[in-house]
Write a structure and sequence with these properties.
With 441 residues, the chain is mostly helical. Helices cover 50% and strands 2% of the residues. It is built from 15 helices and four strands.
Length: 441
């Protein structure tokens, strides 16, 4: 009888933990899976300076891991995370972390052969932009940058009520605008570079006219003002990438300002952890902390590559915040060296280790190690153990296991033993690999 009562209590606790979250699931359109035979990614060259066996394992498995991501990605934030992962892995010179003006503008400068065109990212971005209505796009030639001004407010893709999530596809769409004539056959009929640039300008206008707070913070939601930690990876990096690639310091500053405003609203300064939201999910969600930190690394890299020296004071403030959050996160690694899905929770149903959120944090850490080694070095050993712990959760078929349900079907929870598949988790593995490869240690 005691055993039956205990089991019933556990069931009730699980139901209670999910009750509030269940009301706020992200809308889930039908997945657009691809046949295995259609996904064929290049093999990778790994950094021989990194003597960690887990890094070698991930290097070997990464093409199949990304192929899995491509097969199951369908939602706006998943597409944005995937295309960013593909760029960081296969075309780092087109990302803020190793940005090259020559690489970015090479196709537009009349080069007939572009040696490292972003075909993998273009294939995914073009597929998800295939339904965009380009009928009102301007015709003719001219600089693409002009199309970012005075756009018609419209999202690149359906955000299912989110204002911020479609922005995550913005950088890849902007890359596609510059390489539409150079990527060749990507399996989807391509629009012109002018059309894609116009669509990015529309996305920028749509974001800028969205709900804001009195202090100027842009909402994550379309119909009301609400901040999510998730938007730290969606909104500021979009603004920063446009600022970097168009030499627009105002956009670079807006990107950092938006990150700082979101950080100020969601950071619990007692625990130095980010709440998921300030309303219906105020807990310290591992993936939310990962989104905030990973997004900041892209913004800081954009500012560094863009030479926006006048932002040094704000950059220093953001770096100091990041250092404190990293310390708090590494202090909370569990016995498996992964982060609890929700941290500082008594209920074990909320605190199962999450591989996806841990991958997001570790990827951000290795970027931070390059930006501020003086602040990051003391945490490097813990990061290496967490890296190995995440890699250990990749199954033989290339799926990352023990991941939070990214749709929040019954709450943003980890279900041990369940076959939960996370599109963003697959992509975050690639982002983690790219960051450690770049760090070379």
């Amino acid at each position: 009888m005691v055993a039956i009562l205990v089991a019933a209590l556990v069931v009730l606790q699980l139901a209670e933990a999910a009750a509030v979250l269940r009301q706020h699931t992200r809308a889930a359109p039908a997945r657009r899976a691809e046949d295995d035979s259609t996904v064929n990614l290049p093999l990778l060259s790994y950094d021989h300076r990194i003597p960690d066996p887990s890094y070698l394992v991930l290097s070997t498995k990464l093409p199949s891991i990304l192929a899995r991501a491509i097969q199951i990605t369908s939602h706006s934030w998943e597409v944005g995370t995937l295309t960013e992962a593909l760029l960081e892995v296969y075309n780092p010179a087109l990302t803020p972390f190793a940005y090259s003006v020559a690489a970015f503008h090479g196709a537009l400068d009349g080069q007939t052969r572009v040696p490292n065109a972003p075909r993998e990212a273009a294939r995914v971005a073009a597929k998800f932009l295939a339904g965009y209505d380009f009928s009102s796009a301007p015709s003719g030639n001219g600089g693409l940058d002009r199309l970012l001004v005075n756009g018609t407010p419209r999202a690149l893709v359906d955000g299912a009520g989110s204002l911020g999530d479609p922005c995550s596809l913005g950088p890849a769409a902007w890359v596609l605008a510059h390489f539409a004539g150079a990527v060749g056959d990507v399996g989807t009929p391509l629009a012109s570079g002018t059309q894609y640039a116009w669509a990015v300008g529309n996305q920028l206008a749509y974001l800028q006219q969205g709900p804001r707070s009195d202090n100027g913070a842009i909402s994550q939601r379309e119909d009301k003002f609400e901040l999510w930690a998730d938007q730290g990876y969606m909104v500021p990096p979009f603004l920063a990438y446009l600022g970097l690639t168009t030499n627009n310091t105002a956009l670079l500053e807006q990107a950092l300002d938006q990150w700082l405003l979101t950080s100020s609203a969601l950071l619990d300064t007692t625990h130095n952890l980010y709440r998921h939201l300030n309303t219906w999910d105020t807990r310290f969600w591992a993936t939310g902390n990962g989104w905030m930190l990973a997004g900041l690394m892209r913004v800081l890299a954009s500012i560094a590559a863009g030479g926006a020296g006048r932002l040094v004071s704000k950059v220093s403030e953001a770096e100091s915040i990041a250092a404190r959050v990293f310390v708090a996160l590494f202090d909370r690694l569990d016995d498996s060296s992964r982060l609890p899905n929700y941290m500082d929770e008594v209920d074990p149903a909320l605190a199962h280790a999450d591989s996806a959120g841990t991958a997001a944090v570790i990827g951000a850490f290795y970027r931070f190690l390059m930006l501020r080694p003086d602040l990051a070095r003391p945490m490097q050993g813990a990061a290496e153990r967490a890296f190995a712990a995440v890699v250990d959760k990749i199954d033989p078929d290339g799926w990352l296991t023990a991941v939070v349900d990214p749709q929040g079907t019954h709450g943003f929870l980890v279900y041990p033993g369940a076959q939960t598949r996370s599109p963003e988790g697959q992509s975050l593995l690639a982002i983690m690999w790219a960051a450690r490869t770049a760090a070379g240690q």
